TrEMBL record:
<keyword id="KW-1133">Transmembrane helix</keyword>
<dbReference type="Pfam" id="PF04991">
    <property type="entry name" value="LicD"/>
</dbReference>
<keyword id="KW-0472">Membrane</keyword>
<protein>
    <recommendedName>
        <fullName>LicD/FKTN/FKRP nucleotidyltransferase domain-containing protein</fullName>
    </recommendedName>
</protein>
<feature type="domain" description="LicD/FKTN/FKRP nucleotidyltransferase">
    <location>
        <begin position="459"/>
        <end position="709"/>
    </location>
</feature>
<dbReference type="InterPro" id="IPR007074">
    <property type="entry name" value="LicD/FKTN/FKRP_NTP_transf"/>
</dbReference>
<keyword id="KW-0812">Transmembrane</keyword>
<dbReference type="GO" id="GO:0016020">
    <property type="term" value="C:membrane"/>
</dbReference>
<dbReference type="InterPro" id="IPR009644">
    <property type="entry name" value="FKTN/MNN4/W02B3.4-1"/>
</dbReference>
<feature type="transmembrane region" description="Helical">
    <location>
        <begin position="12"/>
        <end position="31"/>
    </location>
</feature>
<dbReference type="GO" id="GO:0009100">
    <property type="term" value="P:glycoprotein metabolic process"/>
</dbReference>
Length: 915
């Protein structure tokens, strides 16, 4: 082994020496002749003259990267390439059959029958399942339903490490490992010695701290002494492959994150119900929904799909390798007539919606005929409904029979996780995976993948949603979320929530594999017809959940409701007009027909007013739990006792009167008392967020001022330990910016002569160079990768908020901007799965390479990238970036890039003018 490393290092050293010589020649050539040769056009071809013996290590098999060229390509792709393209290829023998963990790691199995674990690499999973779909339709016309296992569609890497040792140490895999607050240290070390690497990475170092370890062991939970109520051991002779011999029957979140991680993966594998379908996206153009078998939890090995795939390649798995080319197979699927059998077209909706300048909504979009929908579905006969329609019908029936005071909490978060800084509240407990994410690049990659995939999903299906709350606030500045924000907030009209629920509830939404590897469960709660706050258990209507981490997007529907309009500083309506509406005969003398129509959508206890429900509960106390009784009394006290004297225009109105009053004012709200008038929302405006099309409210500033203090200035700003400047157009940590500006006067760094309020263009290059010199690579990576998105948003602001531009001219220029510059925009962050995959490759390379030589390689790539990116900044400065034929859009609107201090001081005072 030492000889192998010695040879490898010798080869790298020689290669680096050649690399350095070539770089000197290149620098000299540019200095002498002023030529603008790039790395790819000059340096890389010269690499080809280096002998192969110096570029690779012949003692290693299937190692990537194997030489300096590949290492440079890997580093550049890892840092600065956000496409969904994989850097290498996936093969049967060198990937799937080669053991990654355990005492036999590195061994190549002779058959797929010997496999006991594998990582759910999308190249493998997509290739096998799509080939099965294509082959099925060649042999039969029967409708295809897909076998499914969570094991194939979620990250089980940590879980697989335990599987790799289950035969050698069955005594160590007891229920206690899932339920105790922290892992037993000696047991953990024993596992990791066998696995060959750490079981987990986040805060792994804490187990080496005796004080911390004693402290963590002092935590207790009820499960420790009641294991059989939470977990059941599975006899080894009954344990299937791809599992450990334990079955968690209920969660216990009073444990460390790494322990709950194992709980969640075990419960997901063994007990979480199957999704109804897989929805495949073709970019943001179309969606294809494939139904899932509900009585089969077999993965692609257990179901025989992998064996069928291998046979279909006419290969012998023992003697020949097989490449899994999922991109080609997916393209074949899309081009095949078979795909039309799965394509979803929602009647009345269009995937062209987001390509329009604006989208107009009416009050009817915020109402829904529940009774009519239930009757329509029942007329078809339950037995004739699709799985999605049947599930939707059942949710309507359950919801319409459940009173708002009695609705149980649907979405659950592991809020009790120990030493997790309450971050469990931002994870779905079913898919919790991984602890706190300290890495800014990794976290932004996960959030970016979520929002981009969701927006492509809604656009492909014509579903209308728009940015709201803190997400809208982040968009306002640079078309990105705030770096300190840990989730997204989206709103949609009630009618479109129902569309989404009927067609996609309980479907796994899969990002187009040519663009990324996102996989998310679309989960709509069971209280879909309950539109008031109620007991407060279900303020969120739906979630778009990352099944690899448990992170999610909250989706709330706005509807006309009977909720009380809250007292706010913001004037939703003209008070005099509102009083006239309140005193009108239509509101004061509600007809019996209007009363009946309001309550007709509900059945059973749900059809009772809160006063009648309170009376019923008093007469039937045994039917109600203490919690439900408390919820009923709270709602009763709020409405019957407190409301008549409350400081709100809704006082002294009954539930039905409030509904009619809100409707007359065109007031709509979510179930957490967020109100908007229709004219604040519609017509929705088209924009870009994280590089993909989105819709934003008609009056974004007014909407934001309801919740936040929005500064009028667009320019230098400080918030949440970050600073914003219009030239960088990103929120940069203040501590990093201090280094970049060389406030400590380090001789190794360039001097920055201007301040951030009026940052000069020439100083911008010095800031970027300082980031690289100081090894603040993550910050430079974020700035580089987000360039297209933030630059687009700045140009959009320059046109939208230009008070001197005529409305029609403004609309024309925004349309031109969108049509010419929003298509195929680079993602502002990497796909999180590719990020981790390429990091692992890079770490393996640097572990063997000489540290000095790998640093030199990093420096050369960074310099190359900075040089290319600086050309883009220079074009912005010269107002030659937004070129269309021979015309430039740069000189249209305000010049916020160069002159924000003077021009940007009152940009966000008012909403953009559209009339």
């Amino acid at each position: 082994m030492r000889a192998t490393q010695k040879n490898f290092r010798r080869n790298i050293l020689i290669t680096s020496a050649v690399y350095t010589v070539i770089s000197i020649i290149f620098i000299y050539r540019v200095a002498l002749y002023g030529e603008d040769d790039s790395f790819n056009s000059f340096i890389k071809p010269l690499f080809l003259i280096i002998p192969t013996s110096l570029m690779s290590n012949n003692n290693r098999i299937n190692i990537y990267p194997s030489n300096a060229i590949e290492a440079a390509e890997l580093y550049e792709k890892l840092r600065y390439n956000t496409s969904g393209k994989w850097i290498d290829e996936y093969y049967l023998k060198s990937n799937l059959l080669t053991l990654k963990y355990g005492s036999n790691r590195g061994k190549v199995l002779s058959s797929i029958d010997e496999i006991e674990y594998y990582d759910s690499d999308p190249r493998l999973v997509w290739s096998v399942y799509l080939t099965d779909i294509l082959n099925h339709h060649k042999s039969t016309k029967e409708r295809y339903t897909m076998p499914f296992s969570w094991y194939d569609f979620a990250d089980f890497q940590m879980y697989n490490k335990l599987i790799s040792i289950k035969e050698k140490y069955p005594d160590s895999l007891q229920c206690s490992i899932l339920l105790h607050p922290a892992f037993d240290k000696s047991l953990l070390q024993r596992w990791e010695k066998e696995i060959g690497e750490s079981l987990f990475l986040s805060e792994r170092f804490k187990y080496e701290d005796p004080f911390w370890y004693r402290s963590s062991k002092s935590f207790s939970n009820v499960a420790i002494n009641n294991e059989d109520q939470y977990c059941k051991p599975i006899p080894l002779n009954e344990t299937t492959r791809f599992n450990i011999p334990l079955n968690l029957t209920q969660y216990m979140d009073r444990v460390r994150p790494e322990a709950f991680d194992l709980q969640a993966r075990n419960y997901l594998l063994n007990n979480i119900r199957q999704p109804l379908s897989i929805t495949l996206l073709n970019k943001d153009i179309n969606a294809y929904r494939i139904d899932i078998k509900q009585d089969n939890r077999s993965n692609l090995v257990e179901s025989g799909l992998l064996k069928k795939y291998i046979r279909g390649q006419h290969r012998d798995e023992v003697t020949q390798d097989i490449k899994f080319d999922h991109d080609v197979i997916y393209s074949n699927f899309l081009q095949n007539d078979i795909s039309e059998n799965f394509r979803i077209d929602i009647p009345g909706l269009s995937n062209e919606t987001y390509n329009q300048d604006s989208v107009t909504l009416t009050l009817d979009d915020f109402k829904f005929d529940t009774v009519g929908k239930i009757n329509d579905l029942l007329k078809q006969g339950r037995e004739n409904l699709t799985g999605h329609d049947r599930n939707y019908l059942e949710s309507l029936e359950v919801s319409s029979a459940t009173h708002a005071a009695l609705a149980p909490k649907y979405f659950k978060e592991p809020g009790g996780i120990i030493q997790f800084r309450s971050m469990g509240h931002h994870r779905d407990e079913r898919f919790f995976h991984g602890a706190l994410i300290y890495d800014e690049v990794e976290y932004s990659a996960k959030l970016n993948s979520m929002i981009r995939t969701f927006q492509k999903f809604v656009k492909a299906n014509g579903l209308i949603s728009w940015l709201s709350h803190g997400t809208l606030y982040g968009h306002l500045y640079n078309g990105m979320t705030f770096p300190w924000d840990n989730d997204f907030d989206l709103q949609m009209p009630l009618k479109h929530l129902h569309y989404m629920s009927q067609y996609f509830n309980q479907s796994i939404i899969m990002e187009d594999p040519r663009e990324g590897n996102g996989r998310f469960l679309l989960d709509v709660g069971t209280s879909i017809t309950v539109r008031v706050h109620g007991n407060g258990n279900n303020n969120i209507d739906a979630r778009f959940i990352d099944i690899d981490s448990g992170l999610y997007i909250d989706i709330t529907a706005l509807a006309v409701t009977s909720d009380v309009i809250p007292v706010r500083k913001f004037n939703y309506y003209d008070m005099d007009d509102a009083k006239k509406v309140k005193e009108s005969d239509e509101i004061q003398n509600v007809s019996e027909e209007a009363e009946k129509q309001y309550y007709d959508i509900y059945t059973g206890l749900a059809s009772l007013s809160i006063q009648k429900l309170r009376d019923y509960a008093g007469e039937h106390q045994r039917e109600f739990s203490m919690d439900n009784a408390d919820h009923i009394m709270k709602m009763y006290n709020d409405e019957v006792r407190a409301l008549p004297t409350a400081d709100t225009i809704s006082s002294n109105l009954s539930e039905v009167q409030r509904y009619l009053f809100n409707q007359k004012l065109t007031m709509v709200n979510c179930r957490n008392y967020h109100f908007n008038t229709l004219e604040m929302i519609t017509p929705l405006r088209a924009s870009i967020f994280h590089g993909v099309p989105v819709l934003i409210p008609h009056k974004p500033i007014s909407s934001l001022k309801i919740e936040y203090k929005v500064p009028s200035k667009y320019g230098y700003n400080n918030h949440e330990k970050h600073t914003f400047t219009t030239k960088i157009n990103n929120w940069v940590p203040i501590s990093v910016m201090s280094i970049a500006r060389n406030t400590i006067k380090d001789n190794a760094l360039f001097n920055v002569h201007s301040n951030l309020v009026s940052l000069k263009f020439n100083d911008l290059l010095s800031i970027f160079k300082n980031l690289l010199i100081a090894r603040e690579y993550d910050t430079f990576t974020v700035i580089h990768n987000a360039f297209e998105t933030v630059t687009y948003r700045q140009k959009e602001i320059e046109i939208e908020y230009d008070k001197n531009m005529e409305v029609e001219e403004k609309k024309k220029h925004l349309r031109t901007l969108r049509e010419h510059f929003s298509g195929d925009m680079e993602s502002p962050a990497k796909d999180p799965l590719l990020l981790q995959y390429e990091r692992d490759l890079w770490n393996k390379y640097t572990n063997d390479a000489d540290a000095f030589e790998s640093d030199e390689l990093v420096s050369l790539v960074n310099e190359k990238v900075l040089k290319a990116r600086w050309k883009s900044y220079s074009k912005l400065y010269e107002q030659m970036y937004f070129k269309i034929n021979d015309q430039y859009l740069d000189n249209v609107g305000m010049d916020l890039f160069e002159d924000s201090q003077k021009i940007g001081k009152d940009v966000f005072t008012d909403d953009p003018r559209w009339e």
